[in-house]
Design brief:
By secondary structure, this protein is mainly beta. The chain is built from two helices and 33 strands. It is elongated and about 85 Å long.
Amino acid sequence: MKKKIVLVMLVAISVTGCGAGKEKTIEKSQITNPMVGNNINSDSGSDLIYGGDPSVLVDGDTVYLYAGHDASTDKEVADSVYNIPEYLCYSSTDMVNWKSEGTVMTMDTVKWAKDDQSAWASQVAEYNGKYYLYYCSWDKTGKQSIGVATSDSPTGPFTDIGQPLVKGNVTKPQLSSFNDIDPTVWIETDETGTTHRYLAWGNGMFFICELNEDMISVKDQNGDGEITSGNNFAEADIAYQKNGLENYTEAPWLYRRQDENGNYYGDYYLFYANGWRENMAYATTDDLSSGNWKFGNIIMTPNATSNTNHMAVFDFKGKTYFVYHNGSLPGGNGYRRSACVTELNFNDDGSIDLFEETAAGPAGTTSSITLDSGKALSHEGFVNSSADSDYPYTKIKIGLDIGDSENDNKWVIAAGKADPSQDPYVSIQSENKAGLYITANKDGSVTLAQDTDGSDKTAKKQTFKTLEGFDDKDGVTFESVSQEGMYLCIKDDILALTDSKSDAATFYIK
């Protein structure tokens, strides 16, 4: 299971009187929407909405994004238990502006489900003018099963067919009670004119089958009148595939590239969660039914704020996009997730290189923050850990040119989390460690830290008032909102707080 999405804009600053110095508002072109950054599920001025396991349907000139609504509010429960009562939908025609389409299905309408709080990962597919929501949840026997619901509209409401499409006790071998999760769908007509409707899924195991023309039943491959599971389609109707799927965990997503005319070409891609904490990886094959996959590459390491991840890959208006989730919203984590998006690029040979998550997303702006010497503010370089015990990140060092890569000195400046209506207030988020903000600590240190509780106290620690630079009015000085009279400065090349106007407290934003 996984996370959810939001988008980015910018704000401008005017100069007014202030006790410690003149307030200064940053250019609109440098500021993103308050708090939300690259998170599609929430928008400026609304209550935070968490949602994970994003999936996407492109229908005509519109992108529809679906997510399970992470509804936990009790912190102790929300840090360890999924509470997902419904599926939400968002739409966009430009990949910049997103519209909430509301709830498309609630779990209390699914009669075979064990409870009404387990709307695990889903994907919607269109076929012959009808829409099908494939999803997974716990059935009354205590196993995860694959369900399907139908609608005449991509925005629902979707109505469950009344029973699981694939029962969790059918697939073999059975290694756990949640082998049967995270459905993905691929529909394609081959060169002979035959249409194939593939459904794939699995945690720890990767299963694939074909669907009948009705889209709500599994195709009986050998015509024996029984739906069985085995190692290949020659012996069964549901095939367990494993060759080439290195370190497969869950969250499969089937994809194939398209040319400028919308025709499919080249290998099929299986994107999936790899290992724990979850990397994103892919494998390729020239035949989905063969079971012969070739491992490609890890393309995204575990993100900085969530233990899981779940992707959707799709083409829209000539570009390929990669949707994923993290826990970057205030109070977010692996159980309160956010859907995010970035462009995906292929090499000439079809391979995909490692890339990082992005706080700005395709619609936002990144900035550099420097001294007049030109030295840039960056956080220390690090690869997100695979160990749960290393999270949350709260003490990442920030200083002058201490990063390992160019992205370590890129920042996303947002309206201040403590009060977005105050023009001189800003919060500063790492571009490549989304959800980690420059944070003023009580001991005078300044670190990159996740907002784990979404509290007013944390919001103030991660908000700064922008003033005319002490040394140069064309520069900017940042005053801590949580500690008035304390300013961001550089001491021994490390970012810290000072109460002096003579320290290196004047910065420049590009």
